[in-house]
Design brief:
Length: 279
């Protein structure tokens, strides 16, 4: 690991993560120009932010900019019903097939699906599933969308830590995704009924997930209920929710899915782009 990566890990993880995350959540929503203007300027300077596809060009706070909406037509949604699309902008961190309850976190480090989901029955259902891990960097568009027409039946909220989810942390912290705050979103594809599960994972300075179909804000102060039953149908490309900052989404897709052309670890993707083809 390079000196820069070592420093990055120390700066973003060897801090009071929970307290700083709660503090940043408060600061990011301040609308006073003395806070709003420099905070947005620093964010744009260090995080490679592209606001050209945003629905608005002016924002009331840093939080408002983080959770920006897209202007109509900013993304093309692959309409092929056999294609599952990327739910968000991101970078493919890992992809493979769930085997013996195991997924790849980083080179040399695995984690257990049952630990991630907190549900051994659901984990068994996803043995043999294709998984894809998408990392949303701090400057990316932070909302996520339905990868296909599907029915959402349940959300399980799992409270946890707020480790950074960047490569230096993934290479050093075992079972990192299983330690962090996350939501498990269970869906079934329209028509086939095949299971697709999305797991948005929060991280340092984030730790807040908003879902349109669950009328609660999932964050470090949330106290339940942890299992939220849903009965919502969404269409491919429809907005499902957002992160307060950047983080990770792990997708569990039907067994036998083939990766779309060009999708490999390290690939950058955009919401609506083809990820896999159904078997």
């Amino acid at each position: 690991m390079t000196l820069f990566e070592e420093l990055n890990f120390l700066v973003t993880n060897r801090i009071p993560r929970r307290s700083l995350t709660l503090f940043m959540g408060w600061v990011s929503k301040l609308r006073h120009p003395a806070v709003r203007i420099p905070s947005i300027a620093l964010w744009r300077l260090f995080c490679d932010v592209d606001l050209s596809d945003a629905a608005r060009s002016r924002f009331t706070s840093l939080h408002d900019a983080f959770t920006r909406e897209l202007r109509p037509g900013a993304r093309r949604i692959d309409a092929d019903p056999q294609i599952l699309t990327s739910p968000s902008d991101g970078v493919v961190m890992a992809t493979g097939v769930v085997s013996d309850d195991t997924l790849l976190q980083a080179k040399g480090l695995d984690y257990r699906l049952s630990d991630l989901l907190g549900d051994s029955v659901l984990a068994v259902q996803h043995q043999g599933s294709r998984y894809i891990t998408l990392r949303l960097t701090a400057g990316m568009y932070h909302r996520f969308h339905a990868p296909a027409d599907c029915h959402i039946s349940k959300v399980t909220y799992i409270s946890g830590d707020t480790w950074n989810v960047n490569p230096p942390a993934l290479q050093r912290i075992e079972r990192l995704y299983c330690r962090n705050e996350r939501a498990v979103i269970e869906t079934r594809l329209a028509g086939s009924g095949l299971a697709v599960t999305l797991v948005p994972v929060a991280a340092v300075l984030v730790a807040s997930i908003r879902l349109h179909f669950a009328n609660v804000l999932l964050h470090l102060r949330y106290r339940g209920p942890n299992v939220i039953n849903c009965d919502t149908t969404v269409h491919k490309g429809q907005e499902m929710g957002w992160f307060e900052h950047g983080s990770t989404i792990i997708l569990l897709l039907p067994a036998g899915c083939a990766l779309a052309e060009g999708i490999t670890a390290g690939t950058g993707v955009r919401m609506g782009q083809a990820l896999v083809r159904l078997p």
